[in-house]
Write a structure and sequence with these properties.
Helix content is 43%, strand content 18%. By secondary structure, it is α/β, with parallel strands linked by helices. This is GlmZ(SRNA)-inactivating NTPase.
Amino acid sequence: MRFVIVTGLSGAGKSQAMKSLEDLGFFCVDNLPPALLPKFADLCFQTQGKIDRVALVIDIRGGSFFDDIFESLNQLKMENFNYEILFLDSSDDVLIKRFKESRRSHPLAPDGRILDGINEERIKLTELKSKADNIIDTSNLTPRQLKEEIIHIFVEGQKFEGIIVSVVSFGFKYGIPLDSDLVFDVRFLSNPYYVEVLKRQSGKDEPVKEYVMRWPETREFLDKVVDMAEFLIPYYIKEGKSHLVISFGCTGGRHRSVVIANNVYEALKKNGHRVIIDHRDISEDIEESKR
């Protein structure tokens, strides 16, 4: 029997993760009091294989009941029940944005600042996070991308021991992505915007790609960036980082940065890394380009 405990920060995507697990055939239970864990596991075991995949959410919504979690986990081990912990994390900025968009209050700060509740929750979950088998940082993941990560882990059996790399293109005129770990300015490259036949296209279009990649400095830059990323990623993993954001910026975020980001994405993906791509500002200058 596969027994998965889903936990993590409020707003980090536990509900979405449970929907994905349910789609994969898991029997799902939300907000089970930790003290009931051993008894619930025993009940599932007694079905003699009728329930062979179980996922349940345990988090700080349980209030004082949450404090029973470690005693219950120890009891599961004593009774030889195998379990695994999936921990969902996210950056403070993204969590705050999600709470504001949903107009929900944080469970630990119903009448106070959301950030205070997040900080308190991080402290309460520190030990549980250290015991997690898989940690997914959902800061830059769409629901579809989160589902893909769930499939990687629970269907394809690829234990997530590395890092998710987000490759982002952006325009400096719209600001640097706040969650960037590494930022590269590609405005030194020749700008397709000033070539009339390319102005209205984007870095996804073949003529723009060919123009940007025709220059030796572009190819040399790409080689050096990919080489640097490959050098840094193992050290980020060693330090416990689960999500790395590499951002490439040009003036408007529509031409050069898109080409470079796509090439870095393909190179890292080819090298076996879990990579997602986001062209943040690719549509911002469409109307201006049409003039």
